[in-house]
């Protein structure tokens, strides 16, 4: 059956199909709108709950701080043996609460992103990674980013060897300034979200950014030409060490994640520990060579200085190399010592658990 419409003949069956399809699209849209309004309600509810939890945590913290003074005044008084024992038990209960409040705080979105991120991104941008999966994905992405840019830097350094033009060096230096700046932002976001990255590694990346900036301003004179081959070799070496470091860090990340953060699983924790120490033992000699290289660069630049009148970059880079080397040596040293101590404590804990179960 057909009808005439605007001078054209349209089949009624086609009209029926059109009506049905339009109806289903409208129904789908109505459902979508109602889902959206339910999402908005839940989001508002979530932000209210988050706000009240933040207030409750703050209040609880205040009460815990107040308790410290009460403990002090009570314990300094004349107490019987039973009362002293009760005080000690209460103290341990309260210190357990302190640890648990830290954990609660970590589960909540961050309210203060710190000076650096507020300055760059604005203070009202939310940089919270709420779930553990989100945090892990962000960290993985950070490691992949480091890896890819390191490969690009290695390629550029090789090109600089092949084509010894200043413009090639400037391109790799520009890339490094951008890379280290980006790293400081990503690392600040990671730290705000509970990562245990040592302050020195972030500082190291700020300094590296300044360092590459200073190299960019160094004029293409005799001094620059003299130091250039050693500098390119150094960047190449550090790039290779960073690739090894990437293998180690992503390995740790994968294993820790599959162990469910590895805190409660003693036996698998032992396996993780063994893997981590094997990785560290492999990495350490290369790191040490890198640190010696940094000290040697500082020395060579220091020796070069009398020949390079008016080139302030020479002493500035020498000092920067020295500071970076000392910071790296002391931080890596502390990390290794702490890991060995903690590992011994873990082994002692394991032995205690086994002796109890035998
Ligand atoms: N840069 C960025 N993040 C780092 C880091 C670095 N150099 N070293 C450690 N971290 C991160 C870890 O990924 C971890 O993050 P998470 O809490 O989000 O999981 C956190 O800091 C704590 O790590 P930690 O347990 O202290 O050390 P590690 O086992 O991960 O790594 C080393 C130990 C020694 C291998 C590592 O610190 C390192 O490679 N240091 C040398 C860096 C260096 O000197 N570079 C210049 C090359 S010559």
UniProtKB/TrEMBL annotation:
The chain crosses the membrane at residues 145-165, 201-218, 274-296, 316-337. It is a multi-pass membrane protein. Keywords: Coiled coil, Membrane, Transmembrane, Transmembrane helix. Residues 80-107 form a coiled coil. GO terms for cellular component: membrane. It is found in: Membrane. Its main location: membrane. It comes from the Eukaryota. Belongs to the TMEM120 family. This is G protein-coupled receptor. It comes from Pristionchus entomophagus.
